[in-house]
Structures are given as structure tokens and as C-alpha cells.
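Box 3.1 A note on notation
Throughout this textbook, protein chains are presented in two layers. The first layer is the amino acid sequence; the second is a C-alpha cell string describing backbone geometry. Keep the layers aligned when reading.
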Amino acid sequence: MKRFGTTSLAIIIALSAALAGCGKPDANGSSQGAGMGGEKVLTIARSSDIIGFDVHNHGFTGTESVHVNMFNYLVKKSPDGKFQPDLALSWETTNPTTWRFKLREGVKFHNGDSFTAADVKFSLERVAKDQKLVEYGNYKQIKEVKIVDDYTVDIITSETEPVLLSRLSRLGSSMLPSKYIQEKGIEAFLKNPVGTGPYKFFEWLRDDRVTLVKTDTYFGDKPKWDKLVFRSIPEEATRVSELMTGGVDIAVQIPPTDMKRVNENKTTQSLSGPTTRVMMLALRTKSGPTSDPKVREAIDLAIDKKAIIKNLFEGDGKETMTAITPGIFGAKPDLFGKSQFDPDRAKQLLKEAGYEKGLTINFTGSVGKTLKDKETSEFIAAMLGEVGIKVNLEILESSKFNEKRNAGTTGDMFLVAYANSMFDAALLYKRLAPDTGYDNPEVLKLLSAAEKNMNAQEREKQFQQVQDILAKDRPQINLLQLVANYGTNKRLNFTPRIDEITYADEITLK
């Protein structure tokens, strides 16, 4: 098994090559014709389908891993985390709340429309002003986008904004074709999306696959592949089988128990790398039994995080009491790598809370959304049963789970794993209140202050104070930092990215 350090911000998922229409692998286990004059088709097996093509209305890495090949940001991050030009060539601050961006000229959307400042204004003001959009909370800091000329914009924030470049280089900030959407409507766009990226939309067979094809009008380097196929295969065993028989070129979320088998196969190898993703429980703090802090603490103390890591993840993972992992701005190291397992104390807390004879909670989990999510939910339910908490466990397929979570109908508690695409503590706390109803005034005051604080040292301390409070109040019970496991065809040059995003043109054949 190859392993990469936490500073390796290179490439995530990817794919090999194949002849168009050729479904049978050759003797080497790779699709025929790869790199030999035939059409180069890259196929990746994912654990779930995309949410859709509204770049502002999702918060999922898996969906963004498709979007990044179709759309562009103003700013992008290099493999080592540095900001680089994308649709913006340069930027500067003209006053504490105004950033000026010079845009790239000659860029075309896939439908032929030119990219201009009007598209920047339309895209960013849409996500910054429409509260119904999932990414609104991460962009509401933008007060206005002023057009200086066709290729110059001023982005004006409500207050000082220390992480604007981070916001503009992550999901939720892709540029949309304003003319097309204004003329045809957003529904027409969602059925036939167009961006400025190296690959354009071909088809989406819901719960099966998304297919993109290269475009000859891309402003950057020529696309390396003729076609990208993102297959949705929720079943772990099926993903592994498809990889090992040459049906796909890369498979994500390889079960730890299958990593050795993949690595020993003649044509495939297993890879693993760190992520910013933390698996956690989100608990309702305004209603039901989990509104009692003693019940939330009892749930935390009843869970043996080390046992979860050992039994379900083959030891790959790290227990944590915070969602902000090392390497993320605002991390508090003394809360990472620690857990509190004390079932006897958990029983005592339940007794003090008036549940000496036990209680029942409703728990929602998912299958195929995150590695071992179903098994983790079942393991936790069994542990809670040991201290007298009966669990009504509902396991949902990924899209159904997302619907219930966004609607706030997931019962008393749900399991989720969040990554940090901004590499800043501010991002994860955007889900705190929506997921749990938590509204501690002290926490809200600290987060509000940190959001606009340009003093990095003060801002870091504010985030660390928040983590100390949350570790005691437990609106979220953080479980473990996840490791990303992949299986790939050996003919690929591939390195996992810590942000788990798939940039197809960072993938090459050996």
C-alpha cells in the first residue's frame, strides 16, 4: 500500500484509458486501445451519484469532483495549496472591504458565449443573495460585485474578509453563463449545463453515470482525455470487482479489508492518503432527548472510537474531539487524537438525566455516502444499547439521506462526514446551527468575530475557544478523521489529493 503525507496536496481520483464503446479489458486488465491511437476514456467508480449541476446548491466533494472538470473558479489552488490564477489573472485589495480582480480574456463557455465580468457578477451575487441555496452561508459575506469593465470586477464584502480567496477557490464559486441562464432559465441550464472547463456535458443517467467529453475551445492546456465517465456504484464489493476486472480505472472508498487484495492483483494497486474529512454525529439540541446536555455527553462516552477505527477501518483513522484537523487554520491540537470512552459514566449521566430505565432515540445513517458509514452507524447503535439507549436506526441511500438532512427530518441524531474545502475552521461551522439547532451566544459571538478578523493570531485563538466550548456542549460528537482509500489501474500516474477532488487532467498514463 502506498501512503502519502498530509502535506501532499496533489491529485485525487482518476482513471485509465479505453477505446470508445469497448467494454472488455485486455490481457493486462486495462481497457483496450489506451494511449495507442484510440479514444482515451477515463472511468472512475464513485460511491454515489452527483446532486446535480447547480454549482451553488450542494456541498458535496463527490459532486464537485465532476464539476471541476466542467467549470472554473476565479482562483484555484495548486497541489501545494498556493493560490493560482484561473479565470482571474490577478487580484489586489483596494480598501479593507474591496478586492479587484482582472479577468482572463478570450474565454468561451461551452455554448459559445464569452466569459466576462457580467458572469462574475451574476454567479457570485446569486450565491451570496439567495438564502435557499446550500452554499449561501459561505458567500453571504459578499455584498456586491461591481463591474469596472468587461474584464475587471470589484468584489465588495460587508466587512473585512480574511478568507475571500479561499472562498473563491472552492465549491460554490464556479462561474455560470449569465446570458444563457437569463435567456433560457435555470432549469434549462440544469438539464444542459455549460461551463468554461476542459470538458463539457454529454449525458447524465441518474444513479448510473455522468459522461463528459473534451472541448476544443478550452483556454488552457489541451484536455488529456477524450471522455470522462463517472460511474455511481454504491456497493463496495461491486466497485472493487469492477476495478479488478478492468471495468473501471479507479474506484474510491475501497474498504480497508480489500486494500491488500487490490494491491496483490496483477493489474491494480491500492493507495491511501489523508483527508480533512471528519466523521461525526450531529444531535438535535432543541428537541427530544438529545436536547439534554447530559444525554449528549452520555452518547459520547458510550462510543469507543478506537474500536471503530480498529474493527471497521483496519486501524486507518484518528480519533478526535474536534472537527478541525491539523493543517486546517484554527486547529486545536490538544483535542485531536483523543477520545473519551467511559460507559459507566454514561450510565450515570443517563440516570441523572431521568433515564435510569433507558431511553429511545431516532438515529439516521447512510449507505455509500462515506466509507463504512452504514457499518459505523450499526456499530454505534450497538454501543449505545450497551448503556441503555435503544436506537431506532434508519439507513438511507445517499440521495435520500441528503434530502432528509437538508429538510431537518433526520430524527434525534444523524451520522455524517464533512471535509473542509476551505482549509479554514470557519467553513465547518456553517453546518453547526442547521444540523443541530445549536445557538450558544458565546460561540456565535466568537465565530462572528473570527469571520472578519484580519489578525491571524487572534482569529486562531477565537476558533480554538469555540472548539473547547463545543467539546463540552457536544452539539456534534466528532468521531474520527478519515483516510481516503483508492484502487487504481497500475498504468496510471495518480496521487491522492487531501481535498479529495478529481482533476482529470492531473492524471496521466505511465
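The chain has three domains: 2-71+186-273+484-509, 75-180, 276-482. Confidence is low (pLDDT under 50) at residues 1-36.
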